[in-house]
Amino acid sequence: MEEKTKAVRPWEVLESRYLSKKPWFTVREEHVRLPNGNELPHYYVFEYPNWINVIAITTEGKYVFERQYRHALGVVSYELCAGVCEAVDGSPLESARRELLEETGYGNGEWEELMVLSPNPGTHTNLTYCYLARNVERVEAPHLEPTEDIAVDLLSLDEVRALLDRNGVIQALHAAPLWKHISMLK
Amino acid sequence: MEEKTKAVRPWEVLESRYLSKKPWFTVREEHVRLPNGNELPHYYVFEYPNWINVIAITTEGKYVFERQYRHALGVVSYELCAGVCEAVDGSPLESARRELLEETGYGNGEWEELMVLSPNPGTHTNLTYCYLARNVERVEAPHLEPTEDIAVDLLSLDEVRALLDRNGVIQALHAAPLWKHISMLK
To answer: What number is the ipTM of this complex?
Structure first.
């Protein structure tokens, strides 16, 4: 699609320095100049590895959901299986297969990429790859890390629709692929 | 809906301190204990005010989109009108009406809340209120801040569908309400 109005151009970086380089807290402070000449002396960029999530549907047509406590918002919420692309993974798809197996014990099935999202293109450097996995099967017990406390619930399609209708999936990175999936079913 | 499997409980905060308290960079470092007894000595919580966004449809049935350069990802992307709930706003709805008028010059119309999202309930303290505004009209010229460089494009519903189908809206907080809206049209 052609742009209908004016062109929008990138910013120029005048200065850049790391304030922190830790897992889940790698931040650059940048002094930037906009195309109109205005400057932002303190712009914060948060670096993360890429993330993945999976809408996994079992051979019985059940959707594999997780419940986790999410500390910043202080809520227990329904979520998709999700995780981080590790250096050992050969691709985001491999990361997604690994995370689904580790967190839920489900594997196999037919996988496709549903969409690619940004958590926030203004603040976050990473992307989230969202997959749809059909006909997954429980192949082993979950292998949770000591810091993971995850409940796995199997929901019917009607339950997923009801969950979405009552705003029960609040994580935007999960709500987007779920609503896309629902829109494609109709 | 009843929880189908085990209960998931909150974490206990053992220590909490602010690393920074600046606009767009307010961060707490917390030492937390999980219900299973395991501890995370360095958990980062990012505080933000609430945000809003708007799917605005004109009296002619056109969708009001924006294009902006987003510096962390380094892309110019199609987005909804979006912004921050300011202290002067009486409600998130007021914030959304104010932002739409400031950034695009469109106002009036019939407004409803479409959904409420979290940018990331694990890391972010805030919520994003998503609105659907029908029959908005151009009532004045946009009033952009010196640091805003925004192009406003009016898209037909077919163009919005094509944009979504080609993964053209990558900001998860915008893709979710757009796909929900599309799913409700069918």
So the answer is: 0.96
* B124:A72 CB<8 A: yes
Q: Which residues of chain B make contact with A122, given a CB cutoff of 8 A?
A: 70-73
Inform me whether the C-beta atom of residue B17 falls under 8 Å from chain A C-beta atoms.
Answer: no
Q: Which two tokens stand for residue A96?
A: 């997604």
Helices (H), chain B: 92-104, 157-165, 172-185
B22 touching chain A per CB within 8 A? yes
Helix (H) or strand (E) holding A175: helix A172-185
B73 vs A146: CB contact, 8 Å cut-off? no
Is the CB of residue B72 less than 8 Å away from at least one CB of chain A? yes
User: What is the per-residue pLDDT for A146?
Assistant: 85
For residue B33, give how far its alpha carbon lies from the nearest alpha carbon of chain A (Å): 9
Q: Is B123 left (phi over 0), alpha (psi -120 to 50) or beta?
A: alpha
Task: Establish if A158 touches chain B: CB-CB under 8 angstroms.
Answer: no
Please identify every stretch of chain B with a pLDDT value under 50, giving residue numbers as ranges. Answer: none
* Cα–Cα separations (whole angstroms), residue A80 to A152, A178, B80: 10, 9, 25
Q: Does B180 touch chain A (CB under 8 A)?
A: yes
Prediction pTM value: 0.97
Q: Which residues pair with A40 in a beta bridge?
A: A32
Work out the widest C-alpha separation in chain A, in whole angstroms. Answer: 59
Identify the helix (H) or strand (E) that includes residue B45: strand B39-47
For B65-97, how does the pLDDT look when each residue is reduced to its tens digit (9 = 90+)? 999 999 999 999 999 999 999 999 999 999 999
